[in-house]
Amino acid sequence: MSKPNLVIRNALWRGEKTALIVSKGKVLELKPAGEAIELDGAEVVDAEGLLLLPSLTDAHAHLREPGHEYKEDIASGLKAAAFGGFGQVMAMANTNPVNDNATVTELMLAQAKASWPKGPRLLPVGALSKGLECRELTPMAELAKAGCVAISNDGMPVQSAEFFRRAVEYASDFGLKVIDHCEDPSMGLGLGVNEGRVSSLLGLKGQPTVAESLHVARDILLAAYLDLPIHLAHISCRESVELIHAAKAKGVPVTAETCPHYLVFTEQDVDGYNTAAKVNPPLRTPDDVLALRQGLREGVIDILVTDHAPHADFEKEVPFAGALCGISGLDTGLSLCMKLVQENALDLGDVIRAWGTRPCEIYKLKNNAFAPGDPANFLLFDQNTPWEVTPDTLHSKGKNTPLMGTTLPGRLKALFLKGKRIV
Predict the structure, then answer these.
(1) Distances (CA, A) of 377 to 13, 235, 285
(2) Longest dimension (CA), the chain
(3) I want to staple 315 with a disulfide (CB 3.0 to 4.6 A). Which of 70, 311, 369, 383 is the partner?
(4) Would the CA dihedral through 364, 367, 369, 370 be positive or negative?
């Protein structure tokens, strides 16, 4: 039997005090606290009062490099990821140049290895169409070979059903899942505010929920017809949840994600022309929030993602119509979800599944379920130490969040990847 080189004592795993025993970067055993352990010179960490969780996987983030390093670069994005508890980050393709060829993919991976050689791990998402222009498919075999783990046209909706069909078929040849941004471009593309009472009071043109749900319905029908999987990005409204629920009941191979901000904030947070709350798809109504929470608890919504979209101050500190859409979320995603756990809106199992187990299943990534032999990728979370969200407490270059100035009730204490402490 392998000798342990790291022992985490007294950590809380699913409500029980445990001891995690690690050897050579892998889980050796997870056992109840108090049982005898052969330390044999192993490093011992007392995690009294801390939650033990598998390291998180963020399956939808924008790290901006190459081309927009003034917003974020791979080094700063992975730093925010590490301090947010993420061991793996899937980086979307809307870089400049677009990640539509192996050269860009390889550059991204090289930058990640140079800045964070021990992790967090960068997992590039390749572009679905060249230049994200929906005219010509990318060389997906080349992208897969270079290291891309999925394909997406990111924030540029694919309006042509025929083009999208061919993309899904082509991607499936290389084992790549397509992630689709569900938005009808003819119905208020990227307006950043929900069509409803708040948009009317502010005198802003809003985007209706049907702009998303129409596109969701199309993708569900295509997935059923082709019998090929499609992943639906950042779901924001009740109609979409209901469509996905019905599709899954019929066995249609669709999966879906939402973001912490859609579980917490509503269109009311845009009041006062608050550009920090301008995001695409827009924040919706309290009823949509309730539907998303229920959908997540029931597994209709499979995973949580940050949709981390950092911007420079000057891109947000402008009149609402001219401000860019996006919320910076890698630093705050876990803490915000743990706040929902404390409020009994979610339970800890939802968080573990949606940030840990399920994204790894969908994208065929290594997962830590704390079984013997699993990678020793885990975090310790301090649920009893509040922290204030300020520019100085965020590690991302992007400070654009409606949480700025608020207090969250708990924060990451440590992140371990392959048994080595990263932060």
Answers:
(1) 14, 28, 37
(2) 69
(3) 311
(4) positive
CB atoms within 10 A of CB 202: 16
Contact 216/238 with Cβ under 8 angstroms?
no
Alpha carbons within 13 angstroms on the beta-carbon side of residue 137 total 18
Instruction: Dihedral sign for Cα 198, 203, 208, 212, please.
Output: negative
Active site residue 173: no
> pLDDT per residue over 259-271, tens digit each?
999 999 999 999 9
The CA-CA-CA angle for residues 249, 256, 199, to 5°, reads: 110
Sorted by where each starts, the structural domains of the chain and their CATH numbers stand as 55-363 (3.20.20.140)
What angle (nearest 5°) sits at the alpha carbon of residue 262, between those of residues 183 and 340? 160
Taking only the tens place, the pLDDT of each residue in 139-181 is: 999 999 999 999 999 999 999 999 999 999 999 999 999 999 9
DSSP string, 144-185: HHHT--EEE-TTS----HHHHHHHHHHHHTTTPEEEE----T
SS3 state at 347 = coil
The pairing of beta strand 378-382 with beta strand 51-54: antiparallel
Strand partners, 137: 129
Prediction pTM value: 0.97
